[in-house]
Amino acid sequence: MSTEIPVGTTVDVKVPGSSANLGPGFDTLGLALSIYDYVTVEVIETDLEVHVTGEGAGEVPLDERHLVVRALRAGLNEADVTVPGIKVTCHNSIPQSRGLGSSASAAVAGVAAANGLAGGTLSDSTLIQLASTFEGHPDNAAASILGQSVVSWTNVPVDGHTAPQYFASSMAVHPDIEATAFIPEIHASTDAVRRVLPSDVSHTDARFNVSRTAVMTVALRDNPDLLWEGTRDRLHQTYRAEVLPITAEWVNRLRNLGYPAFLSGAGPTVLVLSTEPVDVALITEAQQRGIRVEKLQVADGVKITVR
């Protein structure tokens, strides 16, 4: 029998943004970043209220279609708890559709809030499964849940009927590594940017990315000197360059200057991971060209506070 959560119960969620792929680790590697969305969920007597400020305000639906609400409902159902009504208040700082995990963070916020209301009965692995279902891959969601960096993977059942299973393992990042995000003022649909990818790749390119993904895990954890080599890729960035020309320009320019730069997720954000700051003159030029620049830290995972 389901348990109903009392009116007045309130949960605050602080969820970090994320970067996926990190160069070669397509749909596998993820990194939590210190740019946050804040969500408060309060149990009320009836109905649904949704309020949004910050990024996405005036653009996202304020009803059951809102991703935080959909994920919240999924989490409550998984925990076998009910609410008479809910008030959801979102303050978003993560840029929407820019390759910094905004949709994954919304899904994580919803399932994490449900877990808070349910008394923490859902495990991290369950939260990853629930949140990743909305994304179709676990790299961003797992990073926002677990924090630091993650190695993630998906098992697709051969019967074609059972839902995919999503998994991830966290990995601490070397304390000297910092991130600089170059965020163009354009949006990129993950689905649209995926459509430019070829259905098949060569064995040579596959082998290249397998090796660089392995290098990247060592670079993140133990040896930042390997970050430039570890962020090389042949599977997706070259193909996406044709639909993200500004992104491609800055990835190439930064890499030619020795910075470990790569396309963050599906873009258009360019992320640099390094122990050395990016030259101020480059940052100033980017800003003059309408590119937002954020200096970020590697973040811990989602925080849940019940009051």
The radius of gyration over CA amounts to: 19 Å
Order of helices and strands: EEEEHEEHHHEEEHHHHHEEHEE
Average pLDDT, to the nearest integer? 95
Counted beta strands: 13
Share of residues in strands: 25-35%
Head-to-tail CA distance between termini: 25 Å
Sheet/helix structural class: alpha+beta
**Quaternary structure:** single chain
User: What general form does the structure show?
Assistant: globular
Tell me roughly what share of residues is in helical segments.
25-40%
Please count the helical segments: 10
Write the layout of secondary structure elements.
Layout: E1 3-4, E2 10-20, E3 29-44, E4 47-54, H1 67-79, E5 81-82, E6 85-92, H2 102-117, H3 124-135, H4 139-146, E7 149-155, E8 165-171, E9 178-183, H5 190-194, H6 203-221, H7 227-230, H8 237-240, H9 245-256, E10 261-263, E11 270-274, H10 280-288, E12 292-296, E13 303-306
Helix pairs in contact: 1-2, 2-3, 2-4, 3-4
